[in-house]
Amino acid sequence: MGTAQAQTEWNASDGAPLDWFGYAVATQGDWAVAGAPFESEAGARAGAVYVLDQASGVEVKLLPSSSAPGGHFGSAVDLDGDTLVVGAPADGLGGQAPGKAYVFEYLGGSWQQVAQLQGSPGAAGDGLGTSVAVHG
């Protein structure tokens, strides 16, 4: 039986110990994506996602366009080509937390949010975004 060895170590450039950086990860080609669902720049435990271009070493931090504290953006991530989907299973406003999924695309040299998916009508505790997948 062989042994595995880490080839690269990646830590968020502005990470804090309780951000949970790496809670969810995805890779494809030169891209590596890591969720930090307890990161608090956009609000307490609103979350963040970091995208690393492994070829250039450039890291980009993505935040949701709208998120409630405790939304946990970055709890789930998936990547296909230039499309990234990020789950925020406790996101919601007005005391409701049905969850959301955010879609980003790499357009014109930067990651841009192109959609926000949520249930209709959606209810507290639905957990939309607990798991995400993208293909094609």
Describe this structure in words.
The chain has 136 residues and is mainly beta. The chain has one domain (18-117): Lipocalin (Beta Barrel), CATH 2.40.128. Helices cover 0% and strands 35% of the residues. It contains no helices and eight strands. The strands form two sheets. The chain has a four-stranded antiparallel beta sheet, with no helix packed on it. Strands 5-6-7-8 form a four-stranded antiparallel beta sheet, with no helix packed on it. The model has no long low-confidence stretch (mean pLDDT 89).
List keywords for this structure.
single chain; about 140 residues; mainly beta; Lipocalin; four-stranded antiparallel β-sheet; 8 strands
In short:
With 136 residues, the chain is mainly beta. It has no helices and eight strands. The protein has one domain: Lipocalin, CATH 2.40.128.
Annotation field: number of helices = 0
Give the overall silhouette: globular
The overall average pLDDT, rounded, is 89
Order of H and E elements: EEEEEEEE
Which CATH architecture is right? Beta Barrel
Largest sheet, order of strands side by side? Answer: 1-2-3-4
Radius of gyration: 15 Å
The counted number of beta strands is: 8
**How far do the termini sit from each other?**
36 Å
- The proportion of residues forming helix, as a percent range, comes to under 10%
List the domain count as a whole number: 1
**What is the CATH T-level topology?**
Lipocalin
Can you summarize the main beta sheet? 4 strands, antiparallel
Measured by DSSP, the beta-strand proportion falls in: 35-45%
